[in-house]
Amino acid sequence: MDPGSPAAGEPGPATPGDLIFPAVARLELDELLAQLVDRAQDVLSTQGRLRGLLRANRVITADLSLDVVLRRIVESACELVDARYGALGVIARDGHLEQFIHVGMDPGIVEEIGPTPRGDGVLGLLIAEPAPVRLDDIADHPQAVGFPAGHPPMRAFLGAPIRVRNEIFGNLYLTEKRGGRPFTAEDEELVLALAANAGVAIDNARLFGEAQHRQQWSQASADITRHLLADGDDPLELIVQRAGDVARADTTALALCDPAAGALTYDVAEGHEADPLRGTRVPMDDSLAGRAVRDRAPLVVADVRALGGSELDGFDLGPTMIVPLIASQVTSGALVLGRRRGSGLFSDEDLELAAAFAAHVALALELARSRAARGRLSLLEDRDRIARDLHDHVMQRLFAVAMGLQGLAASEGQAERAERMNTYVEDLDETVREIRQTIFELRGRSTPATGSGLRAKILGIIDDMADACGFTPRLHLEGPVDSAIDATVGDHLTAVVRETLSNVARHAHAKAVEVTVTAADGQVIVEVVDDGVGLGPTTRRSGLANLRSRAEGLGGAFLVEPGPGGGTRVRWSVPTG
């Protein structure tokens, strides 16, 4: 080795134009350059993560379906901080998790683990105190409760609350940062920023979902109304079907009131376990449906079985709404909407919309019943008018023609012509008999099959007695005559109306009679007033005694007295049942 050569690692001899640094200064420069490179890498990394945050924000705001938005929030958070597992827990009103949307875990493992968490252990930290939580090892925390069998191992944990309009909506949970590293403060800041934007996206999705839900309820109400206006089949099944679909209920039923019996009957039921519920009869005073009807207010429960002792206790129902059907201050029944245990609770908005739907349906049903009643009355009036026209006009003209022909036949001398005219007279007589038979059928024919209630029976009696009286009695029906009076009292009542009108026709020589039937305050009152000759000393009392016996046998009263303007006033009153 040449003694004049520099040793290995030492700078060679300076040449003209070289820049020479002292040894210490050179080391400091190397360190500074290394720091600059590290910071440049940090800046690039930060820029990349910020771009990732912006990309995540675009992803979670690109859809308005709440379910899609929630899943995208979890997926974006995992990608943003390089987490293997992530979940979003939606907090219910009772403080537990009603939804748990998770990503990263194999479906087979999920099935093996069993039910999703309800918010215990470390997950409950954010529920109790909504603030970010960052742990290097979950097991080291005093509130850790461990994992169920088959659960994959998890150490690093990062949780952040999600607020919607200053209220806690749920929590974002992230575990197992890839590479076995712990989550950093920067990870926490990024997740908090994502959670803030997630709250806005969730709010928008909820508002859109609520608007759609309201539209669905409105459409269901419109469908029911159109069905009723079109005189379609029994609307009760359609009501139950549409309400169950819109409310996302597993079981839907309609219980109708029977005031006379103090009970409700589940006439229609659809969905899960509907068969045993259909046709069930429950007391008004000791049932969930009866409670909603009595209070005239909707009822919502988180778990039917927790109440105990209700008619729904034996069914697999958790969250349930019971909404009364109220129209014109009359409650006709209750709509029951239930979900299986473990399903999401009904919200205040669900209850509000279901109550509005029930009120609309109740009014539509009442209008349909009123229209049907008016149609039956119109039919009866048309029959009476046709019978009256046949009697007053057609029959009189035919009778006059027959009399004229008879007179003409008597004045003619020719026997053959007289015989022909008598044949014509006989034909006219036969025609008159046929018309009389038609009049009798029109006046005596019962109402259509749909009018089989007490009102229809009373109307039929009025029509039947018109010929005997020589005029059609006037009728007034007041109160819930069809629904408030039981069958036994109804049978006695129709007999009383018929017997009283028979007495008027036989003895009163009246030109007008007015019948009033009133059902109110647990009593039914029949009042018959005529303008006839009144009660004389020879008036038969056997019929009156029978009326009095019927009243007293039912715990009621019977009164007969002179009418306010002459004639007779009969008043028969008994309890409705």
From TrEMBL:
Its required cofactor(s), as named, are:
heme; Mg(2+)
User: Domain Histidine kinase/HSP90-like ATPase, which positions?
Assistant: 488-577
Report which superkingdom the organism of origin falls in.
Answer: Bacteria
Asked whether the UniProt record includes Transport among its keywords, one would answer no
| Stretches assigned to the GAF domain | 65-212, 231-375
User: Which Gene Ontology cellular component terms are annotated?
Assistant: membrane
An example GO BP is:
detection of hypoxia
Is the keyword Magnesium assigned to this protein? yes
Query: What is a single molecular function from GO for this protein?
Result: magnesium ion binding
Keywords linked to the UniProt accession: Cytoplasm, Iron, Kinase, Magnesium, Metal-binding, Phosphoprotein, Transferase, Two-component regulatory system
Designated name of the protein: Hypoxia sensor histidine kinase response regulator DosT
